[in-house]
Specification:
The chain is mostly helical and 499 residues long. 68% of the residues lie in helices and 2% in strands. The protein has a single domain, classed as Up-down Bundle (Growth Hormone, Chain: A). Its main location: membrane.
Length: 499
């Protein structure tokens, strides 16, 4: 169906009438008259309404717009996420350089210092995503990045368990706005068929930060003794300073919303706004933040997504202990740090592949199911053998299966609960907030006394993965029914929920 790039207020009064073409393969280079700046939406239907979303057949103008968004928006968000996770997880590699010994921590105190970050993170999530719709996202996110840079740097001067807990809590509060804010920005600029791939690309910032954290640490730890400081203290100082410089740059590059992005032309702004309006199922007029909150809380589908993402993150609790898990293979500190890299690089490739396939096919449930099956196989293998090669293969396997699901679930949130920008933003905030509760209790599933097989942690992670897949099938059932209901409405515009 053709849709002209008129402002939202003129959406139903300008341009040509809607044209629905016959189902067929998508040609991303096909389009309409270049002078019309229109978007063609080709619907693909089957008897059960599977893959139930509009197919985009992009005009040359839209192809250029998406390419411009990819080159301007994605790199800065990716770098910000890199440092977000690098700063957060520096404590996991610092442990291998004597952090526990220097601060006189017990094993339980270390686990608590890991989990306390997520208490601060959770407290900041929902308020942050409510505020971001009323403030400039560019300034808001850059400001909080500067604050978490300061918190990360201050970790270098902690002297005991108490001061470590304070800095970790403050780091969690200041890091909280980034992930939900980044997802909100992506959801404002990318359509249902595009967003899963972009979220997965963003998520590789997380993956690569974790992958290269060990390699970075190998070099930084050689500074041990410089200025009378331990190597792990230099790690927090260097990463914190670099994070601060990135925060300054991000304030100039990040956009606020499609209608006022300074590095888009006027025509591109209209096109960016129009295509997002055309892509939203059951689009409604933007409303107040409080109404958006109530709308989100009343949506049963959101609660299914919340518990799905919660179980998914519970299955990924190994991330806070991965260097320690790899250390059980019996290698030296530097070899252990180097071995933490390949599993995450493999995971990054698998994550992008799954997200691209999901977006191309407009399908979520089977992709999530397959990824969770891969994760379950890895978890079971990891605790079923003591063979070094098999265990390392298992680490690569469960990491790949877990990481690949994240972008699929988060992309599903924005396409299912995005009727208004307020509801979309708050839904993302609620999902990330409640799901992050898993990071508070899962560290206690990984006691050092369970080395090397971690049977309890691996077994529960496999169970969490299976439960998350079952919830994906429940949501599919709900969306099939909703699509049938929408199809019977005379005033419906033809858009449908994807599953």
């Amino acid at each position: 169906m053709a849709y002209h790039t008129t402002p939202p207020s003129e959406k139903h009064s300008a341009g040509k009438p809607l044209e629905v073409s016959q189902p067929g393969p998508v040609d991303t280079h096909a389009g309409t008259d270049p002078q019309s700046n229109s978007i063609n939406l080709t619907e693909k239907e089957d008897s059960e309404h599977t893959n139930s979303t509009d197919r985009l057949v992009k005009s040359p103008e839209e192809i250029r717009l998406v390419r411009k968004l990819d080159w301007r928006l994605m790199p800065i968000l990716w770098v910000m996420y890199w440092f977000n996770y690098l700063d957060r997880n520096a404590i996991t590699v610092a442990r291998l350089d004597g952090l526990e010994k220097d601060l006189n921590l017990t094993a339980t105190q270390y686990q608590t210092s890991v989990s306390i970050l997520f208490v601060g993170y959770i407290l900041g999530q929902i308020p942050s995503n409510m505020l971001i719709t009323r403030l400039r996202p560019s300034v808001y996110m850059a400001g909080f990045m500067a604050l978490w840079a300061i918190a990360s740097t201050l970790t270098a001067v902690v002297k005991d368990y108490k001061t470590l807990m304070i800095t970790r809590f403050f780091l969690g509060v200041t890091e909280a706005p980034f992930y939900g804010g980044a997802l909100y920005i992506l959801a404002m600029f990318y359509t249902k068929t595009e967003i899963a791939t972009r979220v997965s690309i963003l998520f590789t910032g997380n993956i690569c930060a974790t992958a290269f954290a060990g390699l970075i640490a190998i070099g930084v730890f050689e500074m041990s003794g410089v200025g009378g400081l331990a190597g792990w203290r230099w790690l927090f100082i260097i990463q914190g300073i670099l994070t601060f410089f990135i925060s300054v740059a991000s304030a100039w590059i990040l956009p606020d919303e499609p209608s006022n992005t300074r590095w888009l032309s006027e025509d591109e702004r209209r096109l960016a706004t129009a295509r997002m309006d055309a892509d939203t199922t059951a689009l409604q007029t933007n409303t107040s933040t409080l109404t958006g909150l109530f709308d989100a809380l009343k949506d049963v589908r959101l609660w299914v997504l919340i518990f799905m993402q919660h179980l998914h993150l519970a299955a990924s609790g190994y991330k806070n202990f991965f260097p320690s898990i790899v250390q059980t293979l019996g290698f030296s500190r530097n070899v252990t740090l180097a071995l933490t890299c390949p599993p995450y690089l493999i995971s990054g490739g698998f994550c992008i592949l799954c997200a691209y396939s999901s977006g191309r096919l407009n399908e979520r449930v089977w992709h999530i199911t397959v990824c969770k099956a891969v994760a379950v196989f890895g978890f079971v293998l990891a605790c079923a053998t003591l063979n070094t090669g098999a265990r390392y293969f298992a680490m690569c396997t469960f990491a790949s299966g877990v990481y690949a699901c994240n972008s699929l679930i988060i992309g599903w949130v924005s396409s299912t609960c995005g009727q208004t920008k307020e509801k979309k933003s708050i839904s993302i905030g609620i999902v990330t907030c409640v799901s992050t509760l898993a990071a508070v209790y899962t560290p206690y599933l990984w006691p050092s006394s369970d080395e090397p097989r971690y049977v309890l942690a691996m077994g529960t992670s496999a169970g969490f993965s299976i439960a998350a897949a079952l919830l994906a099938w429940l949501l599919r059932f709900m969306l099939v029914r909703e699509n049938k209901r929408l199809a019977q409405r005379a005033d419906h515009d033809g858009t449908r929920y994807v599953y």
